[in-house]
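Please decode residue identities from the backbone states below.
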């Protein structure tokens, strides 16, 4: 997720006079790119697991029990591939649904300590869903950002996205990807 972080560095190199005019675009870009990177990471994770299931068959080509098991699992593998193709909203529910096809519940590992304190599984779900809502609002051109816990608030009750929030987004998803893919 180096591109969103590079945008934050670019923003920091701007003269302070230009921050106001470019902050909004750069901060929004960081969120959109970060959530897109998370979605791509999840898709790659699932596709790699599914490919591993089928590639192992080559080394077991003379093991009829293994080949029978692989044959029985083909419908599940094909279902997984179709579901990855349909995966478009990388919120907690959709990510968990997709990973459950692999027999995995990532929520058991969704607990980590970013700057600012420990996040339990429910906290991670709330932040993940909050960032996906923010990305949705930006990507679909909504006039105002949603009032979610990952953002600050304007006096009008809308979400306010600052450079600090954009950096928190990038950090959160980097740590979430590590926690999701890391087996204890």
């Amino acid at each position: 997720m180096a591109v969103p972080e590079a945008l934050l560095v670019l923003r920091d190199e701007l003269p302070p006079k230009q921050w106001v005019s470019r902050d909004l675009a750069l901060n929004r870009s960081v969120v959109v790119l970060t959530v897109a990177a998370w979605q791509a990471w999840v898709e790659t994770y699932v596709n790699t697991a599914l490919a591993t299931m089928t590639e192992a068959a080559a080394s077991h080509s003379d093991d009829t029990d293994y080949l029978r098991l692989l044959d029985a699992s083909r419908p599940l593998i094909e279902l997984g591939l179709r579901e990855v193709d349909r995966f478009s909203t990388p919120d907690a529910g959709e990510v968990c649904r997709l990973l459950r096809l692999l027999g995995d519940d990532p929520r058991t590992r969704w607990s980590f300590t970013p700057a600012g304190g420990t996040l339990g599984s429910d906290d991670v779900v709330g932040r993940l869903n909050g960032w996906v809502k923010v990305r949705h609002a930006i990507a679909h051109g909504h006039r105002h950002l949603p009032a979610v816990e990952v953002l600050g608030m304007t006096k009008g009750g809308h979400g306010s996205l600052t450079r600090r929030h954009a950096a928190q987004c990038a950090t959160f998803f980097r740590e979430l990807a590590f926690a999701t893919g890391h087996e204890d």
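Observation: The chain has a mean pLDDT of 87.
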